[in-house]
Known about the structure:
alpha/beta; 7-stranded mixed sheet; 3-stranded mixed sheet
Amino acid sequence: LAGNDLGQLGVDGALRVGHGPDAVSLIQDTPCGEPTNILSLNYETSLGVYKHDFGVCVKPLSFPEQDLSTQLAEWIETHIMLGVWRLTFYVFSVHPNMEKVLSHYKHLYQDRIVLIPTSLPGYQPNTPKLRHLYLKNKINTKRQNEILIYNDCFLRNMHLVKYVALVDIDEIIVPTEPELISWAEMMSNVRMGMTEVEKTSVYDAFCFSNTYFFTEPGNSKSPFFTTKHRSFKISPEGQFSKCFHHTELVDVVHNHAPIFCMSDEDSRNCSVFFVDPAIAKLNHYKETCVGILQAECHEYKDSTVKDLSLLKYQDRVRQNVEKTFSDIFS
């Protein structure tokens, strides 16, 4: 059991199979104090249940004024083409047009799209604009809040899919080869390219290297099919990568990698396989590098190469988005 000054509380050691108590109480400070609350427990199991291949978790969307409706729709359509079975969105506050897009896809795909209204815990601000500024100026606090959300999402989906990916709406894990469309096809290629030793090893997660596709400053249009050059330099393995987390083996997740896993009986260390960028990589669409890389961002910006790996989805995605916008904005 672990808590922090943000009002977050994490409970370790949750049962994955079988059944335990129907409810628990949380008592602060005094181990045998009088409980003042009771929380019901929900038990689910994947035993005997068909598990789909992939689920995606999206951290709380906070766009109270910025309209990214086209980018959001293209992002959803692309992930449907990639074979993602469930998309789980946590929502702080979004522009009304983005809200319409989310509602449309929820209606269209039913249980495959999950929308979870979200607020900050404890004494943190929750009016949309103030919360947005608060998180923008408190990056470490923002990350702490996200860890809670990501693990909630992982637990919600662990009995439904084999792998969970944690990605933002400016990121897409893209197979490099033109003939590879889905993540399932991509993962078959990954396994075929393994050494014999790697094929017999157990991996808690498959992680993909971060690659910057720098967008035009101030451009409000969706970047996915208009940004055709990426940084020649690819982020080193383990830096800003995004992963497929194995839902039977990972215990605790983090934004860029699993934290605790169960594949090693003697420890909680995680075994991660880093996918060769020649097979697939994380396309990351941003105006500039993340904050801690600003001093060396020129190393990424000064040398770029053309990369058209995402364009194989363009025609179908744009056709579907055009129809979607005709339905919801006409």
